Each structure stands twice: as structure tokens, then as C-alpha cells.
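Sanity check

After download, print the first record. It should look like this:
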Amino acid sequence: MAHLLTPRPAALAQHMIRLRLTLMRNTLRGDNATNLYTGVTVGLALAIGTIVVAVLWPAHLPLTLAAWLSGWIFGPILIGGGNEALRPEYFSMLPAPPRRIAAALLAGAFAGPAPAVNLLALLSLPVYGWRYGPTGVLIGLVAAVTTLVTMIMLSRVIIALIGLFVRSRATAAAVGIVVGTAIALCSNGWALVIALGGSDSWIQRLLRALPSGWGVAAIEASWPVALAILVGGVVVIALLLAAWSALLARRVVSSARGGVPPRRGAPRPLPATTSGARITAAKELRAWWRDLVRIQLLATAFSYALITPLLLVTIDAWIMVPFIGLIAIVMAAASSANLYGSDGTALWLTLMTPGAERADVRGRQLAWLLVIGPAAVVLSLAGTLVSGETWAWPWVLGLLPALLGGGAGVIVLLAVTSLVPGTDPHKRGGNPLSTGADETAETSLAWLVLFAVPATALPAAGAILLDPWAGVATGLLTGALSAWGLGRIAYRRLEKRGIELLNLMKYGPPPQPAESATAELPLVHRIGVTFCYAIAWLPLFPQGLVPMFMKIFGVEEPVWFLALHLPPIWQWPTIIFMIALGLLMYGYAILLPIRLNSSSTAATR
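Expected C-alpha cells:
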């Protein structure tokens, strides 16, 4: 009788597709809708750009397709497990073998805008094949389908591997190192390509050896070799499906283990005392030692801070090496901005203790400084010494305390003012690196920290420009004031709004009332605001402020800064234009919603 209850493969796949589309449709509102439409718009532009590359610059098509492959591989890691809408644990009781459930989940994975946009980009393969006649077009069409399936299968297998094998501190740190390295390569990987010789034939062979380049290799090969490559792609898809089904079966069985490693050997860095802040700091240090999510984020921050300057060293540009520790501070603060949200409903322990809010906030600040501070100091001093950039000493010594204090203050303030609810650590599902929180909200919070923490160091930077060594005293003063003042605001808010934060963590944000819909931005403006927030940092910081400081200090390395590659007469106008463009984009993103919402409110009165 069991086989009569087993759903047919086609019917099960249809159910998964409908379920995925229903989930997406029911969540398509507010910020989710804005992010989706913005993502689709940007994705379509990139897909069309990929086709243009196939037409105008065909030699760069393998590299472009490799970028799409990297998105599928590193995307699940960057957003904490891929934001799985259809989790395997939901279907563990279905009377179907794991392979059939895996195939159905794969069909559900295709039900979304991302595969459709990627398929449009992969139409660049038949466009590229047009140079080789009708046969090349046919091979390109088949390769586009197999390449898309391979990319999605690789993404699913990576998610399953993370959910199954990341059960220790070492594996969590390894994932963080991979993530940090991937982000660094995306931002400064061009330096490594230049150092190795971007036109060398071995790079072209490597790009064609990747799954994203098999289609190009098949188009360029003879009929027998092309057929072998296509058949090999189908075999790889079958092997990935088999591996995925096996991983899903093991993940469902082992999901009860959760994501918290054993407590054996946990350090006790601070003794138990009567000081509430010290006790909280000791508890928080143990959380940093045990929580796999925190370990992974910390490894991401420090690996990015190390890899990014070292990539520039490959082209003999040492300008960023003295600032390794400063970069690590800012990145670590961005990954720590949701401290209370990552702890789940454990806040009730603090609220049940009269007057414990101040000690809790100060203890979290102390623990964060003890975790980040020593490593940042060592990296800053060692980087400055090794680089030989003596001009950087006042900047390092002045900005280091300013950023440490600013980070310790900003993270606790945002933790109580912009909390993003997450799942209690002991209730996390099969993927221990997923907090269950809204990834979009957490990412927005991280971006806010990336701007807020450096802003706390602006007084020290201004003082260094006026008198290099006076900036050191200014950095110490502003760092201490930031940690003390912002922490004071945080614990006073926690005293007044602690119950509301606990309700937010338990039940999530309340539904928006119907009358507030009039204050929402039109779709076009929402897309524009999201786009400006995502892009404005490019002209403002790496193409504006950074080359401005390089010009001020006489650094001659042009690296990837547009203004420094232009004739001297055009360098300052370009820098000013980039800064103005970035500020205008931020002004549009910040002021337009305020203006439209104010107009809508006035119209309803």
C-alpha cells in the first residue's frame, strides 16, 4: 500500500513549484517587493550586458559567465544559507524517497526570477555560437540549459553541505574565511589578475574548465568533443542530484543536533565577580566562543581585512596594508550590529533582573572590545611596520581608538533601536549558520554600521589633517566618548523599551495598518531609493574620497581609481564630480521618502 501513497514525481514537482510561487506571492509586499523588483531590474541589465559581451567582446564571455557562477556559489554563503524558502525539514514526513524529494525541490528552485534572469544571460551562448554557424547555435542552446541546471545544483549542494557539516567552530571559521576571501576577490580581485597577467592563455583555459565555461568550450570544439562535453555536463548534473539527495537525507536526520557546539573546553576569561558588567562580559565572551554564527561572521570580517590589502600588494601597492586592523574593526562591527536579535528571546533574563540593563549593555561592549581590540591592534601595528609607510602612523594611532570606541557604541545602540528578530540559537534548523532573521533587514543594518562607525572617527581624521599627532589624542577622546555616550543611550532605551523589544523578538514586527499604505513610496521611487543606497558608496568612497586622500598625501599608485588614471588637469574635477554624485544619490535616497511621506500625510489630513 505504501507505493500507492507515494506521490508521482511530476505531481510532487508541480506541488513544489506552486508552493514556491505561493510563498513568493504572499511575501511580495513592502521592502520585499522593492528588493525583488530592484534585483530583477539589475539582473536584467546584467543579463543584457552579458549578451552584449558575447557580441562585442567574445573573448571575455567565459569570465563574465564565471561571475554568474560565483554568484550562485557564494550567494548562499553570503546570505546565511541561501534563504531557503522550501526547507528539506518541511517534507521529511512525505512518503517518497530522498532522491524524488530532491528532484522536486530542484524543480521548486527554478520557480523564481533568479533562474529566469540567469537563463536570459546564458542566451549569450547561442549568440556566441552564431560565429560557428547553426551547429554552434544549437550547441549553445543545449549548453545554456545544462549550464543553468548545473549552477543551481551547485548552489543547492553548497547549502546542503553547509547545513550538514558546519557543526564545529573550525568549520564555521572556514566558511567565514571563504566568504571574506570571496568578498575581497569581488572588490580587488582585478589586482591579482593584473599581477598574474590577465591575457595569459592559462587563465582562459582555467575559465573554460569551470562549469560556467563548458558551453563556450563545447561551441569552440569539434562535433565529437562538443557532444562529449554536453554529455559530461548531464552526468555532472545527475551526480550533483544524487549527492544532494543524500545530503538532504542526512540533514533531515541530523537537524535535531542544532548549531551549538559542545561546551567542553569553553574558556572562562573573566572570573565571577560582583560586577554585573563583568559577569555579562564573561557570558558574552562564551557566546562569541560557542555561537557558530558569530564565529563565521568574525572570520569573515578578519579574512576580508587581511585579503583585501594583500591583493593590492601583488601589484606592489602597499597603501592599504597599515589599515588592516581598521578595516577589521569596521567589518566586525557590521557583523555584530544585531547582538540582541541573534540571542533570540534570552533578553527576558535581563529584563527580569531589576537594574540589569546598564550592566548588560556595558558588558556586551566590554566583550566586543576584548574580542576585536587585541587582534585589531596587532594587525594595525604589524601592518604599518611591514608596509614601511611611515606617513600612516598618525592615521593608524589616531583612528584605531576612535573606531574601536565608535564600534563599541554603535553596535549596542543599533542593537536596541533597529533590532531584527531571529530564531533562538537552540531552535535553529538544519543550517546552523542561518539565524532565521530577515536577511534583507540584517544586510541593511550592516550597511548602516559601515557608514556610522567611520563617521565617529571623522573628528580624529580632521585633527590629523591639521596636526598629525594631535589626532592621536583626539582619537582617544572621541573613542571613549562614543563608547560611553552611545552605550548610555542604548541602556536607557533598553530600560524604557525592553518589553517592546522582547515582544518584537517573540512575535515579529506588527502588521502595518491599512491607513499607512498611503504613505508608501510609489514603486518607481522605491526602486530608485534602493538602487541609490546600493550604488552610491561606489562614487563617494572608492572613486571620490579615497583618491582625494591619495592626492593629498602624494600617493602615485593609480590602481583602480578612475580619476588617477586621467591627465592631471582632469583629476580633481573627476574627484569632485564623484563625491558630488555619491552625495546626490544619498540625498535622493534619504530625502525623497521624507518628502513624499510628508506630502502623503498632509494630503490625508
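If your output differs, re-run the checksum step. Summary of this record's structure: DSSP finds 25 helices and no strands in the chain.
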